[in-house]
Amino acid sequence: MILLANSEAYPGIEASARRLQAGEEGLRALVEGIKLVELDPRVRTVGYGGWPNVLGEMELDASVMDGDNLRTGAVGALKGYIHPIEVAYKVMTDLNHEILVGEGAAIFANEIDAVAGNNLIEDSKQVWWQKLALAMTPEQQAAFPNVPLAPLSNNATDPERVRDTTVFLSSDINNKITAATSTSGWAWKYPGRLGDSPIIGAGSYADSRYGACACTHTGEMSIRCSTAHAVVLYMKMGMSLDEAVYEAIRDLDYLKDGYTEGVTIHAIDCHGNHKVVSLNCPGNITYWLWQTGMDKPEERQAEVIMTK
């Protein structure tokens, strides 16, 4: 068994590891761990305590994927609910759909009695306005929100580089490989923006025959390259895990225009190997790993590749 997650996973990684160790089905183990991350205001880019969009509204994204049957569930731009990961899981189990967004996602969340709540904490609200105000004239501040939003969304960048989506990957006692993600998305994003997290194949992908992959940071890049699916596809084509991740890094590095900052790839294969590589994300990039035989998850250093 193996469990791999990014640095933001610390509130829930141990719970997921214990559940896997006890023989629980992999995807439920991941969902329960991520719910603890969503509840923890120390994690400023997931769930409660995350960053709002340019209008000061919390829009949450999440996804799950079962590698045994390739079923997925995802929600995007969900407002008013504490656990988007649980709603995404229920999309997979209760609907003949794979993704719900916006108002439809909220209607479904209410229908399944998901935990409702306001995820915007006072500190996030204050930081949101302080940063936003710097990008506006006094006249625009007085007229807000009846001002052009695109320039504000482009100018007000994320206060926490790299640390964003939480991603969990696992292979359970039955060798089922699964993936799950949750995020509040890019701070000050344009309303309705979806990153890669709820887009299966971009931000996450799992196939028990080969492996799984999930990405963090600049979701726009992972969307353009279908990075998560690409890593799994490269393994299907015969590449090793390391080769597959490096090939996906080359895909990302090919992007020359648009918003291209950096992406961190987290991946596992069906043989119990793992690989975490960060492209153009400076600083201390870490991840969490637990495997059969380990007492508890360990925080480790990711490989960092800088090309600009």
TrEMBL record:
Gene Ontology MF annotations: hydrolase activity, acting on carbon-nitrogen (but not peptide) bonds, in linear amides
Site feature (Cleavage) residues: D164, T165
InterPro entries (UniProt xref): Ntn_hydrolases_N, Peptidase_T2
Superkingdom to which the source organism belongs: Bacteria
Gene Ontology annotations for the cellular component aspect, listed alphabetically: cytoplasm
Pfam family, one: Asparaginase_2
Residues binding substrate, per UniProt: R193, L194, G195, D196, T216, H217, T218, G219
Coiled coil: none
Active-site residues annotated for this sequence: T165
Protein's name in the database: Asparaginase
Organism: Photobacterium kishitanii
UniProt lineage: Bacteria, Pseudomonadati, Pseudomonadota, Gammaproteobacteria, Vibrionales
